[in-house]
Amino acid sequence: MLRIERVLPQDILTLQRVVEETYLPYFRYLWHDEGTAYLAYINNVEVLEQHLAKPQHHYYFARLEDDTIAGYLKLIFEAPIPDTPFSNAVSLDKIYLTEAAKGKGIGKLLMDFADEQVQITKAEYMWLRVMDSNAYNLDFYVKNGYKILYKRWLELPNIKEEYRGIFTMIKRLA
Fold first, then answer.
1. Rounded CA gap, 83 and 132, in Å?
2. Beta pairing class for 57-63 and 3-6
3. What are the strands, taking DSSP E only, across the chain?
4. Residues 6 or more apart from 39 whose CB is under 8 A from it?
5. pLDDT by residue for the chain (174 residues), tens digit each?
6. Selection from 98, 135, 134 nearest residue 24 by Cα
7. How far is CA 74 from CA 8, 31, 54, 60, 95, in A?
8. What is the CA radius of gyration of the chain?
9. Can you give the pTM of this predicted structure?
10. Phi/psi-derived region of residue 156, left when phi > 0, alpha when psi is between -120 and 50, beta in every other case
11. Is 34 in contact with 28 (CB distance < 8 Å)?
């Protein structure tokens, strides 16, 4: 059984640990410094506190029966898709699993949960970004109803040139 629960401000240190545990194993290959600087930027307490304080930013933990955190999800409500006319949208900003949780259907459960949360808001679209080099996740998103909208190039320090491509994907909600 999986419990999906909202992350609260008092959970910030746990969130910080989970972000690190779920990001580096999958994405250190993107970076010249193995993701150290990027992770320090996105995963510092001040940034996470700012996000948790915003009413549009919702983080959720995926907890197993033994209370282990298998991953997390972040939705940003009222998030128009950049450079498009799609304004009534929600961003599926993050969905990360631990290595132990991968391939066990937990990602699908989190995607279904995200769909439910977004449908409550009456948003028309949900969107996300995925690295073009990440074939496993790209396939997962396509299977969950997302289509590629456009591709951009990331201009981030320390990212390897060959991994700068990122797709913006969209899903129209019923």
1. 19
2. antiparallel
3. 3-6, 57-63, 69-76, 89-97, 125-131, 147-153, 165-172
4. 19, 20, 23, 24
5. 899 999 999 999 999 999 999 999 999 999 999 999 999 999 999 999 999 999 999 999 999 999 999 999 999 999 999 999 999 999 999 999 999 999 999 999 999 999 999 999 999 999 999 999 999 999 999 999 999 999 999 999 999 999 999 999 999 986
6. 98
7. 12, 23, 12, 6, 6
8. 16
9. 0.94
10. beta
11. yes
- Closest CA relative to residue 169, chosen from 133, 140, 131, 127: 127
DSSP string, 19-64: HHHHHHHHHGGGBTTTTHHHHHHHTSHHHHHHHHHSTTEEEEEEE-
Place of tokens 């599926």: 92
39 neighbors 96 (Cβ within 8 angstroms): no
Q: Say how far apart CA 137 and CA 27 lie, in whole Å.
A: 12
3-state secondary structure of 100: helix
Q: Which residues of 149-174 are buried (b: 16+ CB within 10 A; e: fewer)?
A: beeeeeeeeebeeebbebbbbbbebe
- Amino acid sitting at position 117: Q
